[in-house]
Write a structure and sequence with these properties.
The complex is a heterodimer of chains A (318) and B (677). By secondary structure, chain A is mainly alpha-helical. Chain A is built from 15 helices and no strands. Chain A has helices at residues 2-29, 34-39, 45-55, 61-73, 87-122, 127-141, 144-158, 174-208, 211-218, 223-236, 239-251, 255-261, 266-275, 279-307, 309-317. The chains are: A mainly alpha (318), B alpha/beta (677). The complex binds adenosine-5'-triphosphate (ATP), iron/sulfur cluster (2 copies) and magnesium ion.
C-alpha cells in the first residue's frame, strides 16, 4: 500500500518534470523571446544586450532550464515581464481568488449535484426525474459564455440585484470578493452540477439494478436503509474521480467565466499573459496547473483505494 | 403436513412491448407449495422460472408487471401488498437464495454485517446474542472458523463459500419458505454436490418448504419432492419427482431428459430440434408445437389445458400425454455411439510442458527464461492421434484452459515442446508461428457472447478466416460462407444477422462455423456447451460430432462436466491443479480403479435420477496454489498415505485396462479399496 502511494507520487513528479520540459522548450523554439517582446521596437543593440544580461538569457538553454527549475522547486518563479514584478507576487492573489471562486462553487455545486443525481435515480422515469433531467440536460448543452451573459443580462441589468462584472482589485480581501462572486458561482455551478448529477444518476441506477440490491430488497431491508447502506457507498465510489477532475478544472481557473465576469483569477491570467507574450508567467502557470491536476487526481485515487474494500485487500495481499 | 404455504392462482406477468403490445412471460400459473415440501422448477433459459420465483416474494422486476392473478401467502396476496408489509415478510417468512451469490452480496459490507442486518430486521435478539447466532449460522452452513469469516468481505471468499453465506443469510429469519434460484449453477461439481447436500440437510432439519429453481435436472432430482416443468412461460408438467424423471408424460420433458448425457451410458444424447419461442410469438396452439414429435394438426390451433391426472397425481398440458404413459424406453434409444476414425497417426505431441503465470523478472526476460519452481501447469505429456477426441477434465483452476491457450500459441510455455504432425515444432510465440499452423489449430470459446464481435454480422464473422487463410473474394467468398453456415445448419437467412439477434445455441453454431471455415486439423473446444441449456447442448454436441466425422478433425475438448465428456470423447485426461492425475480411453477412466481425484469427481456427478445419490468423499476446499512438492492432490485426497504423498511426486502406473494413474497406491490396492465402497 505504502509502496503504491510512493510510486504514484513519483509518477506525479515525473509528469510535472515532463510538463516543465515541454513548456520550457516550447517557449524556447518560438520566435522572439522575452526581451524582444518587452523592448518591442527598441530590441536591438545595447538595450537588448542589457536586457539579456539582466534576465540571464545569454547563457545556454540547459543552464537556464536548470536554474529556472531550481527556482521553481524553491517556490520562486522568477520575474514577469510586463510589470517586471516577481511572478510570485502576480500569482499569489490570483491563486487565492481562484480558490475562493472554486471553493464556493464546490461547496454549493457538489452537494446539489449529488442530491439531484440521487433523486433522479431513485425516482427514475417518474415526475421528479423527468423535470430535473430535462433541466440538467438543458443546462449541460448551453455553453458557459451564453449562460453567463444571460445571467448578467437578467440579474444585473434587468433586475439590478447584483453587480454584473467584478470590479474589485486583484488583491481584494475575501469579504470584498464574496458579493461579487455570486453570479460567477451560479454560472459555473450550473454546468458543473448538471454534468455531475447525470454521472451520479447513471451510477446509482446501475447499482440499483445489481443483484445485490435486489437481494437486499428480498431480504426485507427497508427502502431508505437499503439506499444508504447498499446503494450509495457503491454508487458514489466511481464518482470520486469525476469530482476530483471537476475540482481540478475549477482550481485551474474557469477561463471563459472569468473573462466574461472580468474576475481576477488564474483563468484570466492565462489569457492575459498569453496575449502579452509574458512567457515566464505562462511557464509558471503551466507548472502550477499541471501540479493541481496531478495532486488532485492522486488524492482521488488514494481515496478510492481506501474506500474500496476490494482494492484495499488486493493491495494488502501483495 | 398438507397445509399450503403459498398458493398461486392464475398468475400472468408480462410487459408492454415497444409496439404497445402486452406480452405475457408467465401465463396462467397455478400451483400450491405445501408445508415441508421441496418443489423443483425446471425449464430452459427464458422459460420464466426466475420471474415465477421472484413473484413468490411479491417482487416483480423493473419493466414487468402483474397482468392478473395472485400469490397467496397466509391468506394475503403478496402481489397486492405495500412495500412496508412486504419488508416484514421478505427475509423473515420467505427468504431467497440467489443464483450468483458472488454478485448478490453487497461488495462494501462485511459478511458478518450482512447476516447481522437480516438478524436485526427479523429477530429481537440483542447484540451479543446476534453475534452468537451469526457464528451458529455460519457453522450450520459448514464454513470454517466463523469468527474470521464474519470479518471478511464477499470477494475474499470462494464461490462455494459465498453460496454458503447466502444460505446462512436466508436462514437468519427462520423462514417458512425458502426460494432458491439456480443456487449451484456455476459452481464446481464437487462444490455443487456439497451445497445440495447441505440444502437437503437444512430442509430436513428445519422443516422449511423450498422452491428450487434450476435448469439442471440432475440437481433437481437430488433435492425435490415434486417437480414443475416450465416451457415458454407455462407449466407443462407438475408431479412427483420420481414419476416425472422416470416416466415423463409430456413430450418436452421426455425430450429434455433424453438430451442429458449420462455417465452410465456412453454415446451422444438425442437432441431436440428448434428452440423455445420468444415471448409473444405464439398466439395460437400449443407452444411446444414446433419442436414436438407427437404433434398433430389439432395442436397447431388449440392450446391444451393443464389437466390433472388423478392416479398419477400429476398435471400435464398436452393432448397426447396418454401415448407417453405406457411408453417403455428401450435401452438403445439414448445411445448413439461416436464413430471416430482414429488414424494411427500422431497429430499433436505435447511433451513435458510447463506453463507459468509468474511475471518475468528483468534478467529472466533478457534470457527469455521463466524461473518458477511451482508453475501453474507442470509436466504435461499427452499425444493425440489424428481424428481423436481428447478431453481434459478438472475443476475450475485445474489449468484446462491454460493448456489450450498454450497449444493455440496465446500463452508461452515455460518448458517443454509441442510438436504438430509428428515433427513440426510449434513456436512458443504466436508472432513467430507459421501462419499455416495458425490455420490448422482453431479455438472455440465457452461464451459466444464474448468471442463474437457484436458489431459484425454473421457473414463478416465467418468471412474472416476464409479471407485470411484462403484469400477468397466476391461471389466465391459468399458461396463458401453459405456452404459453411449450412454445415452448422444455419442457412443463408442468417447472413445479415448480428450476434445479439441469435439465441445462445445459434451463436455457438456461428462460432463453430467460424472455426471450421479455416479447415483446421485440430479444434480446441473450451467449455463450449457450459453456457447452453441441455437441449441446446445436445444439439451442439451432435453437430460437433457430425462435422468431425465429415472432416476427420481432431478435437481437444475441455469441460468440467464428466457426463458430457463421456458422451463425446475417445480419451480423457484428468487434471488437478495443473498436474495430470489420470489419462486413458474414456470407457476405462470411467471404470475402477480410478485415481482418487477421478473417484471424487465421479462421485459428485448428479444424475437426473432421485435414486442415484452422489458420493461425497472429499471436502470441497479451494486450493490457491499447487503444493510445492509431492502429489498435487494431497490437500484433498481421501486416501492419502502420509509423508510419501507429501514429499514424493507419485509415479505413473498402468491400470489393468490401459489407463495410466499417477498415485502412490498400487492400482490393485486402489481397485480393492474402491470396490468396497
Ligand atoms: N424486464 C423485462 N422486460 C421484458 N422482458 C423480460 C424482462 N425480464 C425478463 N424478461 C423475459 O421474460 C422471460 C422469462 O425470464 P426469466 O428470467 O424468468 O427466465 P428464466 O427461466 O429464469 O431463465 P434463466 O434460466 O436464463 O435464468 C424471458 O423471455 C426474458 O427475456
Ligand atoms: S399438445 Fe401437441 S404439440 Fe403440444 S406437447 Fe402435446 S402433442 Fe406436442
Ligand atoms: S499419491 Fe497419495 S495423495 Fe496423491 S492421490 Fe495417491 S494417495 Fe492421494
Ligand atoms: Mg433465471
Amino acid at each position: 500500500m505504502l509502496l503504491l502511494v510512493l510510486k504514484r507520487i513519483l509518477l506525479g513528479f515525473i509528469t510535472l518534470f515532463i510538463v516543465s520540459l515541454i513548456t520550457f522548450s516550447g517557449v524556447e523554439v518560438l520566435p522572439g523571446d522575452a526581451c524582444t517582446t518587452y523592448l518591442e521596437r527598441e530590441a536591438y543593440g545595447a538595450a537588448l544586450e542589457a536586457c539579456y544580461e539582466r534576465l540571464g538569457l545569454n547563457t545556454p538553454a540547459h543552464e537556464r532550464y536548470i536554474s529556472w527549475a531550481a527556482g521553481v522547486l524553491q517556490g520562486d518563479f522568477g520575474y514577469s515581464l510586463s510589470g517586471e514584478m516577481r511572478i510570485n507576487d502576480v500569482l499569489g492573489p490570483r491563486v487565492k481568488n481562484s480558490m475562493v471562486l472554486a471553493s464556493a462553487s464546490i461547496l454549493i455545486g457538489i452537494p446539489i449535484a449529488l442530491l439531484l443525481g440521487i433523486i433522479t435515480a431513485l425516482w427514475r422515469d417518474k415526475l421528479p426525474d423527468i423535470i430535473i433531467s430535462t433541466v440538467t440536460i438543458f443546462s449541460m448543452t448551453i455553453p458557459e459564455f451564453i449562460s453567463a451573459t444571460l445571467l448578467i443580462l437578467i440579474v444585473a441589468i434587468w433586475l439590478e440585484w447584483l453587480p454584473g462584472i467584478v470590479i474589485v482589485p486583484t488583491g481584494a480581501s475575501i469579504s470584498e470578493l464574496l458579493p461579487n462572486i455570486i453570479l460567477p458561482v451560479i454560472a459555473i455551478s450550473m454546468i458543473m452540477t448538471a454534468h455531475m448529477a447525470r454521472m451520479v444518476r447513471s451510477s446509482v441506477i446501475q447499482v440499483m439494478a445489481s443483484d445485490y440490491v435486489q437481494m437486499a430488497i428480498l431480504k426485507g431491508v427497508p427502502y431508505w436503509k437499503m439506499v444508504f447502506k447498499h446503494v450509495l457507498p457503491n454508487a458514489l465510489l466511481p464518482a470520486i474521480n469525476v469530482v476530483a477532475l471537476t475540482i481540478a478544472w475549477l482550481l485551474g481557473g474557469v477561463v471563459v467565466t472569468e473573462v466574461v465576469f472580468n474576475y481576477p483569477g488564474l483563468g484570466r491570467l492565462v489569457i492575459e499573459s498569453i496575449s502579452n507574450r509574458d512567457l515566464p508567467v505562462v511557464q509558471a502557470l503551466a507548472i502550477i496547473l499541471a501540479s493541481i491536476y496531478v495532486s488532485i487526481n492522486l488524492i482521488a485515487d488514494l481515496m478510492t483505494l481506501m474506500l474500496n474494500p476490494r482494492l484495499k485487500s488486493l493491495q494488502i495481499k501483495k | 403436513m398438507d397445509s399450503a404455504v403459498q398458493t398461486i392462482n392464475n398468475l400472468t406477468i408480462g410487459f408492454t412491448s415497444q409496439k404497445g403490445e402486452r406480452i405475457s412471460i408467465l401465463k396462467n400459473i397455478s400451483t400450491t407449495i405445501k408445508k415441508g415440501e421441496t418443489v423443483g422448477i425446471v425449464g430452459e433459459s427464458g422459460s420464466g422460472k426466475s420471474t415465477l420465483a421472484l413473484a413468490m416474494m411479491g417482487y416483480v422486476k423493473h419493466g414487468l408487471y402483474t397482468i392478473s392473478g395472485e400469490c397467496i401467502f397466509h391468506s394475503n396476496n403478496l402481489l397486492g401488498m405495500q412495500n412496508k408489509e412486504l419488508e416484514n415478510i421478505r427475509g423473515r417468512k420467505i427468504a431467497m437464495i440467489p443464483q450468483n451469490a458472488g454478485q448478490s452480496l453487497t461488495p462494501n459490507l462485511k459478511i458478518g454485517y450482512q447476516i447481522d442486518e437480516a438478524l436485526r430486521l427479523h429477530t429481537d435478539l440483542k447484540k451479543e446474542d446476534r453475534d452468537k447466532k451469526i457464528s451458529e449460522l455460519l457453522n450450520k452452513v459448514r464454513l470454517p472458523s466463523p469468527e474470521i469469516m464474519a470479518q471478511r468481505y464477499p470477494h475474499e471468499l470462494s464461490g462455494g463459500q459465498q453460496q454458503r453465506v447466502a444460505v446462512a443469510m436466508a436462514l437468519a429469519g427462520n423462514p417458512e419458505l425458502l426460494l432458491l434460484d439456480e443456487p449451484t449453477t456455476g459452481l464446481d461439481v464437487t462444490t455443487q454436490a456439497h451445497v445440495l447436500e447441505l440444502l437437503n440437510f437444512i430442509a430436513k432439519d428445519t422443516g422449511t418448504s423450498m422452491v428450487y429453481v434450476s435448469h439442471d435436472l440432475g440437481a433437481i432430482a437430488q433435492v425435490s419432492d415434486r417437480v414443475i416443468v416450465m416451457y415458454s412461460g407455462e407449466i407443462v408438467l407438475d408431479g412427483p419427482v420420481r414419476s416425472i424423471l422416470k416416466n415423463p408424460i409430456h413430450p418436452y420433458t421426455f425430450g429434455l431428459l433424453k438430451s442429458i448425457p449420462k455417465l452410465t451410458s456412453p454415446g451422444l444424447p438425442d437432441s431436440m430440434s428448434g428452440s423455445q419461442p420468444q415471448p409473444g410469438t405464439v398466439k395460437l396452439g400449443c407452444s411446444f408445437y414446433e419442436r414436438c414429435n407427437l404433434a398433430e394438426d389439432k395442436c397447431k390451433t388449440n392450446s391444451p389445458d393443464l389437466e390433472f391426472i388423478e392416479n398419477l397425481n400429476t398435471s400435464v398440458r398436452c393432448f397426447k400425454y396418454e401415448d407417453l404413459i405406457d411408453f417403455k424406453e428401450t435401452k438403445s434409444d439414448n445411445v448413439k455411439s461416436t464413430n471416430n476414425n482414429i488414424l494411427d497417426n500422431e497429430i499433436l505431441d505435447i511433451s513435458k510442458v510447463s506453463i507459468s503465470y509468474a511475471k518475468q523478472k528483468f534478467l529472466e526476460q533478457l534470457f527469455n527464461k521463466i524461473d518458477d519452481t511451482n508453475p501453474t501447469v507442470q509436466d504435461i505429456n499427452i499425444n493425440i492421434n489424428k481424428g481423436e477426441t481428447l478431453a481434459l477434465v478438472g475443476e475450475s483452476g485445474s489449468g484446462k484452459s491454460t493448456i489450450l491457450k498454450s497449444i493455440a500459441g496465446l500463452l508461452k510455455t515455460k518448458d517443454g515442446i509441442i510438436k504438430f504432425d509428428k515433427d513440426k515444432v510449434l513456436s512458443n510465440d504466436l508472432k513467430t508461428r507459421d501462419p499455416g499452423f495458425l490455420r490448422a489449430i482453431q479455438l472455440i470459446f465457452q461464451n459466444p457472447d464474448e468471442s463474437l464481435n457484436p458489431n459484425h454480422t454473421v457473414e463478416e464473422i465467418v468471412s474472416q478466416p476464409l479471407r485470411l487463410y484462403f484469400g477468397l473474394k466476391g461471389d466465391e467468398l459468399k458461396q463458401k460462407i453459405i456452404e459453411v453456415l449450412e454445415k452448422v445448419r444455419l442457412g443463408e437467412f442468417y447472413l445479415t444477422r448480428y450476434p445479439r439477434q441469435l439465441s445462445g445455441g445459434e451463436k455457438q453454431r456461428v462460432a463453430v462455423a467460424r472455426a471450421f471455415a479455416a479447415k483446421p486439423d485440430i479444434i480446441l473446444c473450451d467449455e463450449v456447451t457450459s453456457a447452453l441449456d441441455v437441449s441446446v447442448q445436445a444439439a451442439v454436441l451432435n453437430l460437433l460430432q457430425e462435422l468431425k466425422e465429415d472432416f476427420g478433425t481432431t478435437y481437444i475438448f475441455v469441460s468440467h462436466d464428466l457426463a458430457v465428456v463421456r458422451a463425446i470423447s475417445d480419451r480423457v485426461a484428468v487434471l488437478y491443479q495443473g498436474r495430470l492425475c489420470e489419462i486413458g480411453p474414456s470407457k476405462n477412466v470411467y471404470q475402477l480403479p480410478s485415481h482418487p481425484y477421478t473417484e471424487v469427481l465421479l462421485g459428485a456427478v448428479l444424475e437426473p435420477d432421485p435414486d442415484v445419490k452422489p458420493k461425497l468423499v472429499a471436502e470441497d476446499i479451494v486450493e490457491e496454489k499447487p503444493p510445492e512438492q509431492g502429489c498435487s492432490f494431497q490437500g484433498r485426497c481421501p486416501r492419502i498415505l502420509g509423508d510419501i504423498c507429501k514429499n514424493v511426486v507419485p509415479p505413473w502406473q498402468i491400470g489393468e485396462n490401459g489407463n495410466s494413474i499417477r498415485c502412490h497406491i498400487k492400482v490393485e490396492d486402489l481397485k480393492k479399496q474402491q470396490n468396497v465402497n
